[in-house]
Write a structure and sequence with these properties.
- The protein is an alpha+beta fold and 233 residues long.
- It folds into two domains: 159 residues, no CATH class; 74 residues, no CATH class.
- It is 39% helix and 19% strand.
- It is built from nine helices and nine strands.
- Strands 1, 2, 3, 4, 5, 6 and 7 form a seven-stranded mixed β-sheet that branches. Strands 8-9 form a two-stranded antiparallel ribbon.
- A hairpin with a 2-residue loop joins strand 4 and strand 5.
């Protein structure tokens, strides 16, 4: 955990209605294993590292750590979020159940163990949490290499900077929309100077990376002038 002064600052980065959602998720133990990802992670790094980040985002992305059946208690996250002020809605275009609060949309994501070969419309049902989630590749590294930040009654689990950085190197070249690619580029450019090589190697050595993905990573490194050799892949 962070020092007390910085721990208190984590609460302040979230608008009050998002704060209620975070508090509710903390209360049921969601962040003991699952992780806040996406642009909100950068706002947390603003507190923990001093990263400068101002981009507004309308999404709250939560990566869910799926645990084998029989080893976890049932938590009705739909009810938890609704009681905290969120409204659930079904997206007929992809079959995903999302949650909305004023100006923001909450979405759950899981790691795609089939390496992206699933159709994007094939949603994963997590019955023990009463939610469903979108499977995406390379999410597991964000779950495996994470840390808890905040206070005992208000905290989130976020990827360590090295995992978040490496993940961005991979996915930036996979973005279809130029706007999203530019956002990712800005994120890992701002984060690159805070990366510790020892932790970065722990992350990269734990991944199975194919030749095509390595090519995309190298392209990302060239764009932000980050030495590819530091990745050790």
């Amino acid at each position: 955990m962070l020092k007390s002064s910085r721990s208190q600052e984590i609460r302040k980065i979230f608008p009050s209605h998002i704060g209620r959602i975070i508090t509710a998720l903390c209360y049921v133990g969601f962040f003991e294993r699952s992780v806040l990802i996406g642009s909100w992670t950068m706002f947390c790094y603003g507190v923990t590292l001093g990263v400068k980040w101002r981009l507004h985002t309308g999404d709250i992305d939560l990566a869910v750590q799926v645990i084998p059946s029989g080893k976890k208690p049932r938590i009705d996250l739909e009810r938890v979020l609704q009681e905290a002020g969120a409204i659930s809605f079904f997206s007929s275009s992809d079959g995903l159940i999302r949650f909305s609060i004023p100006d923001y949309r909450i979405e759950f994501i899981v790691h795609d163990y089939k390496g992206g070969r699933k159709r994007e419309s094939e949603i994963v049902t997590i019955s023990d949490l009463n939610i469903n989630a979108q499977p995406l590749p390379f999410i597991q590294m964000l779950l495996d290499f994470s840390e808890r930040v905040g206070t005992d009654d208000f905290y989130v689990r976020i990827p360590i900077p090295e995992a978040f950085f490496f993940h961005k190197l991979i996915i930036a070249q996979r973005r279809r929309r130029e706007e999203n690619q530019r956002k990712d580029l800005n994120q890992y450019r701002a984060l690159s100077r805070f990366i510790e090589d020892e932790k970065l190697l722990l992350v990269t050595k734990a991944q199975k990376i194919g030749k095509e993905t390595k090519r995309k990573i190298q392209s990302s490194c060239e764009i932000i002038t980050f030495p590819y050799e530091r990745l050790g892949i």
